[in-house]
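Structure first, sequence second, as always.
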C-alpha cells in the first residue's frame, strides 16, 4: 500500500482502473471522473450524423442539378462550411438564395459531388479521370 507516499517511479498495482486508485487512496475517497459518464457511440457522433445526411432528399432543403443528376444538401451546412455559399444563399443577396433547385453547368457531376461531399465529411473521394 502507498498511503501518503510520493510515488516517483511507476508502481504496478492490482487495481483494475484509475477510478479504483482514486477511490482507494484519495482522502477523502473520490473519483476523477464525473458520476454520470456518457459513452460515445461512433454511429451517433455529430460528424457521423452529418455525413449520413449528405444527399438525403428527406432532410435537404436545396437541390443541385448537374448533368441530369441531383444532389440534395442543406443550406445551413453549405453556409457554415463555404464562404461562397454563405454569400450566395443569404436571402435577398443573390437570386440563387431564393431558389430550391440550382442548375450547375460549370462543373461535372463527379467534381461537384466530391466537393459537396467534402463539405460534409472533410474527406476527398475523387478518382483521377
Amino acid at each position: 500500500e502507498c498511503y501518503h507516499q510520493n510515488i516517483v517511479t511507476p508502481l504496478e498495482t492490482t487495481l483494475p482502473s484509475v477510478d479504483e486508485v482514486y477511490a482507494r487512496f484519495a482522502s477523502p475517497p473520490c473519483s476523477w471522473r464525473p458520476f454520470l459518464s456518457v459513452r460515445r457511440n461512433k454511429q451517433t457522433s455529430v460528424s457521423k450524423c452529418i455525413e449520413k445526411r449528405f444527399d438525403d432528399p428527406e432532410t435537404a432543403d436545396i437541390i443541385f442539378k448537374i448533368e441530369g443528376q441531383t444532389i440534395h444538401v442543406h443550406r445551413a451546412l453549405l453556409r457554415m462550411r463555404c464562404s461562397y455559399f454563405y454569400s450566395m444563399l443569404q436571402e435577398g443577396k443573390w437570386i440563387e438564395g431564393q431558389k430550391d433547385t440550382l442548375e450547375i453547368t460549370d462543373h461535372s457531376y463527379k467534381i461537384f459531388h466530391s466537393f459537396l461531399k467534402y463539405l460534409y465529411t472533410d474527406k476527398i473521394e475523387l478518382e483521377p479521370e
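Margin note: The first strand starts at residue 62 and ends at 66.
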